Amino acid sequence: MRRIGMVIGGTALALGGLLAPRPAPAEPTKYCTARIEEAEDTVKTLEGALDRVKDAQDKQDIQTWVGQAKQYITAAKAAAEEDDCVKQIELAKTLSQDAISLAAQNP
Question: How far is the C-alpha of 24 from the C-alpha of 82, rounded, in Å?
Answer without folding.
Answer: 14
